[in-house]
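Proteins fold reproducibly. Next comes a concrete instance:

***
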Amino acid sequence: MHSETPYEITPTTHYSHPHDRPAIVRQPVILPAEIPPGVDWVTLPNGVRTLAYTHPTTPQPAAVPAAQPVPAWAKTTALLAPTVGGGIAAAGIGLSYAAPGLIAMSHALWSAAALIVAAVIAIPVLIRTTRRATGSGSGSGSTTHITQNITATGLFGRANGTINHH
């Protein structure tokens, strides 16, 4: 059925009701020589035949990705990682050698703290007992009171004062 138009009309059958009839599909007439490679006739799920791109049957070689340069931050990190690890290892070794000395210093600090606490408690007790033994405590009645009166004029003025013994 060749005509002047490049379309052909698919033949249809007669149905009892007009709504049961499929639509007339006009497809262009394409000669096989005009179909480019990778394109073929396919049938869609609704039954329509059309041209579509198809996957090639021969596998294409995979493209090899180009080598990317290593970023500067990665180089810096790679160079610093052994250094930091070596420093941590050296610190651990140093602490293991210093551990006995550190333990001794810890004991010495605790002993010094205990000595200071004992001195804070013992010195007032000793002073109190020596005053009672010499009779200069509050029970002897001969307490000396010293009164100082100091006056000055201005911030850097000469100061005058008196000391009274009672």
In short: The chain is about 40% helix and 20% strand. Strands lie at 7-9, 26-28, 39-43, 49-53, 146-152, 159-165. The longest strand covers residues 146-152.
